[in-house]
Amino acid sequence: MIHFKEISRTQFLKEYWQKKPLLIKQALPNFISPMPADELAGLALEEEFESRLITGSTKSQDWSLRNGAFTEQDFTNLPAQDWTLLVQGVDRYIDEVHDLIQHFDFIPRWRFDDVMISYAAKGGSVGPHFDHYDVFLLQGSGKRRWHLSSKNCEMDNYLDDAPLRIMNTFPVEQTFDVEPGDVLYVPPKIAHHGVSLDDNCTTLSFGYRAYSAREMHEFIGKTCPKNLDTYYQDPEWQENQDPNFIPESALKQAQKLLDINAEQFAQFVTKLDTNDVKILQEFEYENPNEPLTSHPASKIAYIEKNGKRQVFINGEPFRKSDLLKMDE
């Protein structure tokens, strides 16, 4: 688990989650990243990994974006500094990365999206930007300087001619220097800009889903809510809560956006995206004699209704008859 030093976990859930950023120094003491830079570059050579190369800086504003898969020559041709490699969904394939998610299980697991890992040469960044989702930024190696701002986080504040979303106006309010084992929590709509301070900078981003009213409306096909661009807000999570449990308080938050019942919400939060469906379709279970475990690409959650527990897996309710099918 994350080592909160100056505050308690309960205080974090009450005062910081989805409200304001927090730097947790040495949240994971003596942390050694399971994904060195050369191995991350190796993943970016493979077709199954979603990867990007970003070059540029806020000083020059000469941003470029390329999508993988890449070749070894692509890396050879990179400049000496001001570039970043990003690889999405590393937790789906690398067990040691997937195992790190448990450190953040004070947030429900069904809210989790994936782990993106970045490597940056000195000066490398992806520019100042904001997201609609929560993220824990774990420094894996090297050093990075983070600038944060709560101002001008609006869609009309992006550069018009940039190949990626980079804020035009970014008034810095906070600055943090991070080292391996440090974790920076950034809530939705807090602008952040991380710049590598050396040539050995890797950062692991633990991202959480942002549920829009539009996305939920399209999933359940109910009456269109008034504002499709609003986002679900979490309730105040309780410490030591089962990370797979969907409490009624979460459902009530979703119902502020549109008419949705507990079963529909559970199906929605456990549904798979296209890439995860593909991963599971291609997966081959090698040893049927081993105990069953959930695949990193799968999503599992449960609700309690009328004193009974109802489990949902990958967007579908799980029934006892499904166990019989698995034994056949």
TrEMBL record:
Keywords: Iron, Metal-binding, Oxidoreductase, Ribonucleoprotein, Ribosomal protein. It comes from the Bacteria. Gene3D superfamilies: 50S ribosomal protein L16 arginine hydroxylase, Chain A, Domain 2, Cupin. Residues 96-225 form the JmjC domain. It is an enzyme of class 1 (oxidoreductase). One of its GO terms (cellular component) is ribosome. Signal peptide: none annotated. One of its GO terms (molecular function) is metal ion binding. Its cofactor is Fe(2+). Its EC number is 1.14.11.47. InterPro entries: JmjC_dom, NO66-like. This is 50S ribosomal protein L16 3-hydroxylase.
